Amino acid sequence: MTRPPLYTVFELIRFRVWFARLLRVQFEHLERVPAEGPVILVANHESLIDPWLLGLVTRRPIRYMAKAELWNVALVGKAMEAFGTFPVTRGTGDRHAVGRAGELLAEGQVIGIFPQGTCLPFRERPWLRGAARLALTTGAPIVPVCIVGSERALRPGKFRIGLPRVRLIVCEPLTVELAKPTVAAAKELTARIEATIEAARAPYGPPDHAWYPVGTTRATR
Question: What is the pTM of this model?
Answer without folding.
Answer: 0.85
